[in-house]
Structure prediction request, 226 residues.
Amino acid sequence: DGGITQSPKYLFRKEGQNVTLSCEQNLNHDAMYWYRQDPGQGLRLIYYSQIVNDFQKGDIAEGYSVSREKKESFPLTVTSAQKNPTAFYLCASRLREGGSYKQYFGPGTRLTVT
Amino acid sequence: GQQLNQSPQSMFIQEGEDVSMNCTSSSIFNTWLWYKQDPGEGPVLLIALYKAGELTSNGRLTAQFGITRKDSFLNISASIPSDVGIYFCAGQLREYGNKLVFGAGTILRVKS
Prediction:
């Protein structure tokens, strides 16, 4: 069954703790992305990776870190430096067909920090 | 960062009515994507558009890539209760490293 999986669906942490969100894809897509979604808002790009062992900051990278050691996996760590970590986090991967792109999303992880 | 203006912000319509929403920008895009998001879930890709003027359908959904490449619209015909959700447009900019820029979303509610 192909797709993008994110785990867990819901995550609760105490303030000051780092937390890592999982994202795995078996679609053989090269590029992967992390977005943050706040209530009533669109998606904001945190980090992205176009190839293994390489990644770039998005628009709101402060307080987050990522790694891309395998093509299938792109975990996101929310560090204690992130001032407002409570949000819905979405992972995505991108298929390139010729010069055209399609981006697909995982089911999301809702992180609550208290 | 780059911005897309998506309108309307929300719609509350009667079941069976047609729906229209659009996205505009001052930038020229090389791809437009339309997504639907159900509460607590990830967005699902509905339609992808790659050429100016392109008109593409997916069941009751029809989307068009504007001639100027700065806008796109999505129409839903004969709405049904399961159309409820948030619809997002996303544009891809070569100048932005081919990353997607998202609109803020249109919330669709349907009265049955």
